[in-house]
Amino acid sequence: xxTVKLGKTGPTTARIGLGCMGMSGxxxxxxxxxxxxxxxxxxxAGMDLLDTGDFYGMGHNEMLIGEALKTVNRETLVISVKxxxxxxxxxxxxxxxxxxxxxxxxxxxxxxxxxxDYIDIYRPARLDPNVPIEETxxxxxxxxxxxxxxxxxxxxxxxxxxxxxxxxxxxxxxQIEYSLVSRGIEDRILPACRELGIGIxxxxxxxxxxISGHWKPEATASSDFRxxxxxxxxxxxxxxLALVEALSAVAEKKGMTTAQAAIAWVIAKGDDIVPIIGAxxxxxxxxxxxxxxxxxxxxxxxxxxxxxxxxxAAGDRYAAAQMAMLDSEK
Length: 330
Description:
By secondary structure, the chain is an alpha/beta fold. The protein has a single domain, classed as NADP-dependent oxidoreductase domain (TIM Barrel), CATH 3.20.20.100. The protein contains eleven helices and twelve strands. The strands form three sheets. Strands 3-4-5-8-9-10-11-12 form an eight-stranded parallel beta barrel, surrounded by five helices. It has a two-stranded antiparallel ribbon with strand order 1-2. Helix 5 packs parallel to helix 6, helix 7 crosses helix 8 and helix 8 (about 260-270) crosses helix 9 (about 280-290). The relative contact order is 0.14.
């Protein structure tokens, strides 16, 4: 698999990464054995970037990955971890904590759950409004000096925050939602990252399955957080599925599945953008691999964007309360 470097100072990684959040129940019940098999299949195929968060399943996701990695050479991996989101025993979101002492506590527990000696990329999941980003990044820089972390990453922050963070320590990458139906970063954030030599790890490239060609409303579990997502509700979902139909028609004409066309479009936007694929099962992973070999011409990209124009999606990408927490949207 082709490899790329994350920004000027980040690690080299495969062209696509594996997002593991969905293996810990966010999209309804998950199969532990199939999740581990999917991780192994990804690594066997040449993927080396695994993305997780210490709050996915309240530690479940890190322990799952730790189990999967027991037979894997740690030095071949790029492990990316988000931290700071606070949850109660029922799973409700309570806010964020990015104080320096919290950062150092979080990483201690993460290392234990994953069963590793260091984290390749460590990043606050969101901007803590009560803590200057400089203090948070300084704490991660201390962890780098101590050998517990290799690189600093950011997640869902805006241009001003990116610049403040980069002034403290080199930033490997910004993890942020980017897809055919979520193109907000193109206006200011992506140009700023390119100016500063910061890579992009793009999550939500299939908009949580919405533009995968596989999602069906009737198949959504009661515990699936998409039931509360504006894009999956009421008239919004009807409008959005019409966009999916248009994308599917273009994809079929080009010999791709709908999901492959959506992933290939993100890949075509630049070698500094690495899509994070949230596959929970091997069959979906194999489909994603098929997108890596696709080479889209400028005409192909234009045709896909005509089918799904910028800002055509109906509904915000998160519910209102979560949108309010996104520094990247301010």
